[in-house]
Design brief:
Layout: H1 12-31, H2 36-47, H3 53-62, H4 67-97, H5 109-124, H6 143-156, E1 161-162, E2 168-170, H7 171-174, E3 207-209, H8 215-223, E4 228-237, E5 249-259, H9 264-279, E6 285-292, E7 295-304, E8 321-330, H10 332-336, E9 349-356, H11 357-364, H12 378-381
Parallel strand pairs: 1-4
Antiparallel strand pairs: 2-3, 4-5, 5-9, 6-7, 7-8, 8-9
Helix pairs in contact: 1-4, 2-4, 3-4, 4-5, 6-11
The structure holds 3,4-dihydroxyphenylalanine (DAH).
3,4-dihydroxyphenylalanine is lined by residues 212, 214, 254, 292, 295, 326-328, 352-354.
């Protein structure tokens, strides 16, 4: 057994030096502990009650130390004792549990303690790279736009092209060229929002927010000679107060087909097919006489109630039918405005229709209030994700 360093004056510097030596000796012993018996030998050497190193130190130094050095000496002594006790306990435990003797620095008990600490740290900060990762919720298409796209797709599949037009429109396109003469009472049904400060302009050039997508019919025919098959989705505006089924801003899909020999049968067949594609093949359609200045004859198309299948319920007001869109054969007066571009009503004919996208979305998803589409409440919208 190695002897203790000699102490001369018990100064702090001398004590520091002495404990440094002891600590190094202790660590060297620890490095050599590779088995249960070596771990036990370590314990006896340092902690043995009779002649363990700590007992010797207590006897040799603490008892001999001058009064003023005792506090500092005690501090260093306790520090060393605690460290040794800690190692002695984990040493024996580790040595007992050690079935495999690891190689390298981990082959000593101290090495294994360090390895353990590192392993514990690693598993606490474990990163599972097989997890799918953080998913940022990506927005999805709004239900109204989704249905709008669906409607457009149904017509695209029938060979229709897709067009668009401006939301700020002139009186000419929104009304006049659609055969709404100035001051015609049919204009009143459209609760128009006019742009202010237009009084100095000629009436037909005055700007307004388009009340329907029908002006794009004329815009299309100005650019394209017959034949035409086009659908036009878009936003429209009306001075309507918001209620369960009305909103001042909503969406429509307009349709126009012009060719030789287009008849009301084509209109009926096309819309009947579209409704079956949108609501299911059991849905029926019927056409009810109506009036629009730009079609003659005009009709309101109704579908058999999608809630009760036509038997009659609260939703269809017990009629079995739900009114869905306006349509008709293009009025020859409308063709007059684009006659120069090949629209001679003695040679060609056409049909047109316009449907409200929100209305169809309300029916398709059985939503009760149109406002839900505009409030941006994620709890409502995420149901469509
Ligand atoms: N533009 C009409 C409206 O908003 C709907 C409409 C009816 C469009 C008949 C048409 C049509 O193309 O032929 O009330």
């Amino acid at each position: 057994m190695s002897t203790l360093p000699k102490l001369v004056d018990y100064s702090e510097a001398e004590l520091d030096q002495a404990f440094k030596k002891l600590t190094a000796e202790m660590y060297a012993d620890l490095e050599n502990c590779n088995s249960e018996s070596e771990a036990e030998a370590f314990r006896i050497k340092w902690l043995g009650r009779k002649s363990g190193r700590l007992t010797t130190i207590r006897e040799a130094w603490l008892k001999e130390a001058p009064k003023e050095a005792r506090r500092y000496l005690g501090l260093l002594f306790n520090n060393l004792r605690e460290t040794i006790e800690e190692y002695a306990v984990s040493n024996v435990a580790l040595a007992k549990g050690a079935q495999v003797v690891p190689v390298g620095s981990a082959s000593t008990v101290l090495g294994r303690i360090r390895q353990r600490e590192a392993d514990a740290k690693l598993s606490a900060e474990r990163l599972d790279i097989t997890l799918p990762g953080l998913q940022r919720p990506v927005g999805v298409k709004h239900p109204v736009l989704r249905v709008q796209d669906e409607i457009v797709a149904v017509f695209k599949a029938m060979g229709y092209s897709v067009g668009e037009g401006p939301e700020v429109e002139t009186d000419y396109y929104n009304f006049e060229s659609l055969n709404f003469p100035p001051n015609h009472p049919a204009r009143d049904t459209q609760d128009t929002l006019f742009i202010a400060g237009q009084d100095s302009r000629p009436a037909r050039d005055r700007l307004l927010l388009r009340t329907h997508t029908s002006p794009v019919q004329i815009r299309t025919m100005e650019k394209q000679s017959p034949p035409v098959r086009i659908v036009i989705p878009g936003k429209v505006h009306r001075n309507d107060p918001l209620d369960a089924t009305h909103s001042p801003v909503f969406h429509q899909v307009e349709g126009l087909a012009v060719d030789t020999n287009i008849t009301f049968c084509d209109l009926k067949g096309t819309l009947d097919h579209a409704m079956k594609a949108l609501f299911g093949s059991s849905v029926k359609t019927r056409f009810y006489p109506s009036f629009f200045p730009f079609t003659e004859p005009s009709a309101d198309m109704q579908v058999s109630c999608i809630f009760c299948g036509g038997k009659g319920c609260r939703k269809c007001k017990f009629s079995g039918w739900i009114e869905l869109l306006g349509c008709g054969m293009v009025d020859p007066n409308v063709f007059e405005f684009v006659k120069h571009n090949g629209y001679d009503s003695s040679k060609i004919s056409g049909f047109a229709f316009g449907m409200g996208v929100e209305r169809i979305t309300l029916l398709k998803y059985e939503v009760e209030e149109i406002q839900l589409f505009y409030e941006g409440d994620v709890r409502f919208l995420e149901q469509f994700a």
